[in-house]
Write a structure and sequence with these properties.
The chain is α/β, with parallel strands linked by helices. It is about 25% helix and about 25% strand. The chain is globular.
């Protein structure tokens, strides 16, 4: 919980300038470092009627496709435990979707939609959501051409207290804007305002407004760390009963946090995948989880692509620590750039990488590892941690489909064709798959 230092935003503008100055820009490698990919090779026909517009009444009643040893079978998600290898460790993302969509109206009546993407000042999610008085977020603005720069205002009620909540445009960079939010209720946090005044941002391809059912159905049953603007949807199928069934086979679970950004919905729009700029996401992994990973190497199953991306990022943090021992000496802001996995040599084992992270945490008396990852997992990627993946069926020409292809190879087409021919439901509210090496 913090109080920021100004009422007029000048201090926040200064911090925003510092943030922009030191933000890391992705560096594209020479093409010879990566196998060139044409995004058209990752396209398939997805009829609109196959996209699940609403969740099933019972989460674990969804269909489950099982891919193992090049063969495909199917069941229901409630029977997941029957297909998991013994001694497995399931790793799930405990992030919670925030009410990130805010609607303001100009005096003319023009509707302005502000979609909060990522905190800037303070840049930590917990600190920003816990801010009193003001904060700055990186946002997307709908109908921005009609916003003439004046401060937007709306009345909000939290715990029977009415107050004014305002939005000020500080800067526009490309298709994103930096918005300062401020309010005159010093004992009300930004998180409380979002809960009362914001809307849960369901996926754009559902082509409908958020409804009451989405408030619970679009959150996993284990969601607890606020910060995502999209749900880690592979986890939507889990129920307390499914977790209970895992005990019958002594299958362990552990958690991590990656705050899912809106970039997860962005298709690759460039024909050459090398020209696509991957989105960056913040993640956090506890020391205890890393110890569990070390103990279960060879038996790790990621629940969702966000968990997979986080787990694979750990290897490269360990690799960075192995190449620069000075990084261990103090808490470090780790940033993994888009093409890092393809430009660094995999010179250490996964066990060594995780051990180096533990040594770093112990030396700096840290209970959690914090980092930002922009890594793009695509064909030719070498997986270091995950041996299985629980995931939904993804959009054509998406970075998520590239990840699936990296894991199962060209069999992704066979898997998706089977799902289409056997009435599986697609995308966020759709059915699930278990992909095993």
């Amino acid at each position: 919980m913090i109080k920021l230092l100004s009422k007029n935003g000048n201090f926040l503008v200064l911090l925003l300038q510092i943030y922009n100055k030191f933000s890391v820009s992705p560096v594209k490698p020479a093409n010879e470092n990566i196998i060139p990919l044409n995004i058209e090779d990752f396209d398939y026909n997805l009829p609109d009627e196959r996209i699940a517009k609403y969740p099933l009444p019972q989460r674990d009643a969804s269909k489950l496709l099982i891919y193992k040893n090049d063969a495909i079978t199917e069941s229901t998600f409630s029977h997941l435990v029957e297909f998991l290898p013994s001694n497995s460790l399931l790793v799930y993302n405990n992030t919670k979707v925030i009410e990130a969509r805010l609607i303001f109206y100009r005096e003319t009546g023009a509707r302005i939609e502000i979609f909060c993407l990522k905190p800037v000042v303070p840049s930590d999610y917990a600190l920003s959501l816990g801010s009193f008085s003001e904060c700055v977020w990186k946002c997307m603005v709908g109908n921005q051409r009609k916003w003439k720069g004046e401060v937007l205002t709306k009345e909000v009620n939290v715990d029977n207290k009415n107050f004014l909540f305002q939005a000020e445009l500080l800067e526009k960079k490309g298709n994103v804007s930096y918005i300062r939010f401020f309010w005159d209720a010093p004992d009300v946090s930004f998180a409380e305002i979002l809960e009362k005044a914001g809307e849960l941002p369901i996926p754009p391809y559902l082509h409908r407004k958020t409804e009451k059912i989405d408030l619970t159905a679009y959150q996993t049953v284990y969601a607890k760390m606020k910060g995502s603007v999209a749900s880690p949807t592979a986890g939507l199928h889990f129920t307390p009963e499914v977790f209970e069934s895992l005990k019958t086979k002594n299958i362990e679970t552990t958690e991590l946090t990656l705050h899912v950004g809106a970039g997860t919905f962005q298709p690759v729009k460039t024909q050459n995948v090398l020209e696509h700029e991957m989105h960056t996401e913040v993640f956090m992994v506890s020391k205890n989880t890393i110890e569990q990973l070390l103990d279960k190497l060879g038996n790790i199953i990621a629940v969702g692509t966000t968990s997979a991306r986080t787990l694979e990022s750990l290897y490269y943090i360990g690799l960075l620590l192995s190449q620069d021992s000075s990084l261990k000496e103090k808490p470090t802001s780790f940033f993994l750039s888009q093409w890092l996995p393809y430009t660094m040599k995999n010179e250490i084992s996964t066990k060594t990488a995780l051990t180096l992270i533990l040594e770093y945490l112990e030396k700096n008396k840290l209970s959690h590892l914090y980092a930002q990852t922009q890594i793009m997992i695509q064909p030719a990627y070498t997986f270091h941690l995950i041996n299985g993946l629980i995931t939904n069926f993804h959009q054509p020409k998406s970075t998520l489909l590239l990840l699936i292809s990296a894991f199962v190879g060209n069999d992704w087409r066979k898997i998706y064709q089977y799902a289409l021919e056997h009435n599986f439901r697609f995308l966020s509210y759709g059915d699930s798959s278990l992909l095993l090496k």
